[in-house]
Amino acid sequence: MELQSRPLLRFVPFVILQHVLLACLIAIRMQRRARIVAFLSYFCVLVPVFLFTTGDIHRNHSTGCMVTGQIFTAFHLLCLSDPLNDFRHEREEISPSKMPYLRRVYWALCVICSPRGVGWNYQVANVPSRSNDAKWTFVRLKLLSALRWFLLIDFAQSLQRSRPLLPGGEMDVLIVAMHGCIQRFITIALIDMQYALCAAAFVALGISEPKDWPDLYGQWSDACTVRRFWGRAYHQMIRQYTTSIGKLVCHLFRLQPGSWMSSRTQLYAGFAVSGLMHSGGDLMVSPSLLGASFPFYFSQAFAISFEDAVISAARRSKLVMRCPQTLLRCVGYAWVLTWTVISAPLYLTWTVRAGISNENRVSFSLLSFVVSAFENS
Asked: Which residues, by range, are in coiled-coil regions (predicted)?
């Protein structure tokens, strides 16, 4: 279906609806079978959104990812866990199961909006330390962080425009790799810029506290392997449901928890779920693009398996013990950079096929405005 022929999605009402509806379902005390029926009903409510458009291809992709992620979140919360009985927040005074229904709905909304579980008993691994800054100091720092990311995005987009990809023509491998790396960086920057703005707004309005908003990303210096890049440095916003679904797959295959096969299965299942989530973005752009994003994410599991094998062989040969740690980390960084360049073109697949690989993700360019003003002065 062409973008122009689709009905326009009312984005804000839809986002509110999908969250409130899921919260209402979680807040109902249901048996397991009823929760499965509730999930299937919720799934049927969300799926038609793929027939709509936001009016912008990039926004369509991010919305499709969000909706698919919400479906996985609902599967985790309704079918694989029992939030009312299992989840607790550090500031809770009474059990959620004893709260009035409307208060349980609000409590469930807090669960849905806390994918990393900060302050909850289900907090995922490798979340950065929580902030101890005063309220307005925190707000100022987050606004400055958002501004820095905006300027870096602006510069990255300017660099991208300087060497555009030519649709349908011969494309230099290095140019494609450069565009892939830049697009990857822009995505990372956009996510953190939006997170910083949300954190500043919610804390400024008194809705939450600075300690509820730890940094989205970990230390980039930890990214000396592909595994550590995804597991420590990158955001952990989808780790909750990728982990629970990975464990479900292991349970279905009756794999021993903690075994090598269980670890491998969870690795591949987790990245498969990530690939499927991003494929939802492909679908919302165009049905013909469904699955275009999947190879990039699923290939990360192969890269991790490869590096695990190399590290294991190096340890058995005692090579690791004979090399300085600084050298090993430098080799690790070089490997991660090399893999990023190799896999970067896969990240571009859907944008190239959609013909928007050269379009800006942020429409206003401060850099272009300053350059234009300088030239006209």
From this structure: none
